Amino acid sequence: MASAVAAGAPPGPAAPKSRRSVTGTRRVVAALFLLPALVLLGALVLYPIGYSVVRSLYDSSGDQFAGFDNYKALFTDDGIRTALKNNVIWVVFAPTVSTALGLVFAVLTERVRWGTAFKLVVFMPMAISMLAAGIIFRLVYDQDPDKGVANAVWVGVHDSFAQASAFPKAHPGRESPLVGQGGAFVTKDPVRAGTPVALPMVGVAPDQFPDDAKRAAAARPEPGKITGTVWQDFTRGKGVGKLGAPDPAERGYAGMRIEAVKDGEVVASAKAAGDGTFTLPASADGARLRLPAANFKEAYNGVDWLGPALVTPAIIGSYVWMWAGFAMVLIAAGLAGVPRELLEQARVDGASEWQVFRKVTVPLLAPVLAVVAVTLMINVLKVFDLVYIIAPGSSQDDANVLALELYRKGFSEGRPGVASAIAVFLLLLVIPVMLFNIRRLRREGGR
Length: 447
Fold this sequence. Notes:
By secondary structure, this protein is an alpha+beta fold. It is built from 13 helices and nine strands. The protein has helices spanning 2-8, 20-55, 69-76, 78-108, 115-123, 130-140, 149-161, 311-336, 340-348, 353-381, 385-390, 402-412, 416-445, and strands spanning 171-172, 178-181, 184-187, 197-202, 226-232, 257-262, 265-271, 277-280, 288-291.
């Protein structure tokens, strides 16, 4: 019976073969594939880190063991302390501003038809190297308004409300009846009605005259009034022209303000015509004529963006210009995954757009915002190119950061031990932020 059943039963599955050789082969193949990467990782990452740690414990020559003396310099050297302070400013403001702008751009461009084009324009600076961006912004922040875009705009806005004088370098010529008085110029003697007054000046370049300036003319006497001329008493060419009298090639100071002063009070005032002539009423008889200091106010030259006070914020601005697009793209990707029904439900419940943004959109995007901010923090801790290129030599000490100080200590000052200590310190600063980012990414991936 048993033999019959055995004879009629279908054959069972074959016994499994041993997979030990296959598994072993796979491990060998995997190790072979990983070997080049491990070699590169060891040669380009692990070895430099280990060597830097060891080198930071030796003096500048590398022969004598210095212990932790190089690390003590991190907190006693003025240059390193300034760099550390600036790094704190960078870590606080650069990622925050870049992330905030990226969030605003991502949200605002979500509903507009040309949003993609706008995102492309904002993201384009990411295609530019730090070197090129540094050169661009070195020109943008140039002090000369004719070269620097920032000061050209700033001066244009300023001059719309406070026009500069056309005669900033004007001053009395030879044998002039005028003398200096606190930035203004006053006649030496009182003036008398009916006697024309000549006020010769020099110092204004031909291309800086007002557009309405005309050929200077001698004033005619008028009974009971003070008349006179204020003009550029200079004619090109040796021995050409008559000193103290208007010549055919000389031009009047159009718009120059003239005041009549008695006992410290202004009793009358006038503005010079295009030919430099002016007329004051009889009340000016016996007064001294004064050309106020406002006539000679220097032209506004803008803001010293790269001076000691503003150099760090200015460089941070260039960094934001580059990296706001990066933040915008990542946040826009996260925004695309936000459930629309939650936003619509909040609007149906009566929430305003600001409330929807603040209480729904931002909380839902919190993981993405954290990843972007932490990534930028890691990036700014290593910033070097922008600071090195944009900051001029006169203010580079004020804009100093740890990566730049590492370069200066290692190559300019010949102190590789201190430079290695700065490198290790930077690594220690980056590691916690990097670990936080990795843990968050793993946590998000496990959901």
